[in-house]
Amino acid sequence: MHIFKPSKIQTKFVSGLLAASIFLGIVFSIGFYLHMKNVLEEEVRDKAMLIFAHVDSIQHYVRDVLRPAMYERLPASFVIEAMSSSYISRTIMSPINDDRGGTIYRRVAIDARNPAYEANTHERELIRYFRANPEQELWQGYKTMDGERYFLKVRSVRFEDGCMYCHGRPEDAPPELLTLYGGRGFGKEENSIAGVDFVGISVQSSVGRVQQTILTYFAFFAFGALLFFSATNFLFRVLVVNNLKRLNSVFRRNVVDAEGSELLHRLEQGDEIEELVDGMEQMGNHLFEVRRQLQDYAENLRKMVDERTEALSHEAEARQADVHLFVRLLEDMRRSGSRSELWSLALPQICTRFGARSIAYVCTMVSRNYYVWPESSPSPELPENMVEVLTGSACLQSGARVFVPVESSSGNAEGILCLYWDTEAEAARHDQRVLTALGRQLGTAAENLTAIDSLLRQMNVLETIVEGITDPLALMDANCAVLTVNQAARQLTSELTDGERTDGNMLAIFFDPQSQRCPMGEAIRRGTPDLREVELPAGRSFSLSMYPVRSSDGQTDRVVVYVRETTMEKRMRSQVWHSEKMATVGKLTAGLAHEINNPLGVILCYAGLLRQTISDPQQASDLNIIERHTRQAQRVLQELLNFARPKAAGSGTADACSVAVSVSEVFSVQAAKKRARLSVDHPAEPLLVRMGIGELEQVLSNLVINALDAVGEEDGEIVVRVAPMDGRVAIVVEDNGPGVSAADAPHIFDPFYSTKAIGAGTGLGLAVVYGMARDVGGEVRVEHSDLGGARFVVLLPSVTNPESDTTQLRKE
């Protein structure tokens, strides 16, 4: 007769599981609450620091930018709306107190200038705290104000040197402040604590969010627990209770005597486990019969020991091979520069160590790349439960295959290592714990390679940015040592030191880094940029900018040095000034020439009339002298008019080669008389320039005349060269005379400036040459000649249209 009995083991299991779930739920809830509270406190602190950062940026902008600009434009006025950092920061930050978000910002003081910002009771306590602890600059904590709890972040406000103008003596302060506030806010001392910046953030709304989150969590937990208990109850009955009943039924079927019936009646009084235990006791009775078989095993003990010793020896050899494999993998990781290189080195060694037929690695990231060895092997087949393999951190054997999860040091899945053998037995004889450790080591190696590759890419990006700057740029430390430098800085240091230095240390060229007055050291001490112009003895000038850089600990210990050459800019400014000066002189000389030319014409007219009426030879000789000097004066005036008269740029074209030859032939007689050599060097084909023949002849004549006046007797040498140069035509006249000194070079093209003896020149020849060349878009410069004297180079625009050239030549 079957006795009915409830499933006690299931009831005990579910009850214990329920108690454990409730306990864990309470522990997790408390931990979650503390975590959420900590997160919200961090959020409140970050919000307070953000407000402080906003206030600091406003005040720095007012002090460093707005106030200096107002003093520059309104030096005699003090506009509080644009020059008071406290007034502006309070005005900008006032909406924080009105947005009903539970945030308070106040900048208050004791004896505040504006009574509206006088410190209240809480704020006075904080000010007294900072005065009692002057080394403290920040206080934070919780306080209850007006019945509501706030998180406060307060920092002290000190009077600095720049504050004494408005808060020191009333007689030194702007009169606008005295008009607005009377005598309040004065008489402060430097470095004294004026007040506090006060930020308060209500935590009431934050606590409400925490409570709402906890309630939501409990609701989800209760619903999940209900589903979990239902599923667990069902699975426990199917997998445990039913199997226990089947096991107990085995004992019942094998008991047929009266003693067995009494035992079954006694077993049914307990639960399934007790029934199973009693059944096992009955099975112990049968073990006694096995003792005889143990005696047989004892006789074969030596053989079994030998077999076990041999097995242990094989296992030791396997462990030694595993150690060698791990060492080789570490060496491969050190040599590898990428993941693909790591797998190409590691897979053959792993496959050889475990005697596998083939091996493959599959990356489970987005790329889904895979690597196989031997390379002729087919693509790997992943298991259907791949996610369980990756998350289970354990190997999986499927037939003759073993899948090993490859995990990083943080537990993230990197991929799956697949090993293939010929038989299932070969796959099963390997220790899966060793394979799991191997997967973790490979994952760590891949993770390290990824980190190194990311670091190298970031360094390459930084190097590309620095090298992309065409001007010299360098990052230097406080000891004037170069940390980072671009190629432009290396080239500049090599150029300025004639190749002796290529380290890019530009400051060592401009200043003495060991000097106490080194501008870089001063910039670091001030913490502000240093901008200046420096000029080298060779005449090259540079714009030097030094920008201090703060490190992560807030100290200024590095400087960014930026250099830009300004030599050409200064030269262009000098040329512009020279052109303006010549234009002014031209206008002056034009008016003067017209006023003098008329009396000279009258003198010549009356001299001609007198010549018709006199017959005395002495009087005729005197008239010749008068006429000769009058015409000399007219010629000087004509040169002045030619210099000052506006000309049409590019009014004609001329062949520079033929004009140079003709001018040389004209002055060859004068050169021969002075026993000087005059030669012309020009190409065979014509070189057409945008200047009329007459103007070009005048330019060449003035240059040749100057050269003839400069060279000495019997050993003079003058060379005229015509050649194309950079899309233009260069006309060069050089001699072996004394040349042009450095003091005369800046003024050589000025009107009436002459280095010749008094009466030997008018000082207008080179000025006329300069003006004519400039009018057609050309330029003139003076250099030192290889012959020892001066070289004048005239660069004129080239004409490239043959038909237009021919027409212009016919017009000339």
Automatic annotation (TrEMBL):
The keyword Zinc-finger does not apply. The keyword Membrane applies. CDD domains: HisKA. One of its GO terms (molecular function) is ATP binding. Keywords: ATP-binding, Kinase, Membrane, Nucleotide-binding, Phosphoprotein, Transferase, Transmembrane, Transmembrane helix, Two-component regulatory system. Residues 591-800 form the Histidine kinase domain. Pfam families: HATPase_c (PF02518), HisKA (PF00512), Tll0287-like (PF11845). It comes from the Bacteria. PANTHER family: PEROXIDE STRESS-ACTIVATED HISTIDINE KINASE MAK3 (PTHR43065:SF10), SENSOR HISTIDINE KINASE (PTHR43065). This is histidine kinase. It comes from Desulfomicrobium baculatum (strain DSM 4028 / VKM B-1378 / X).
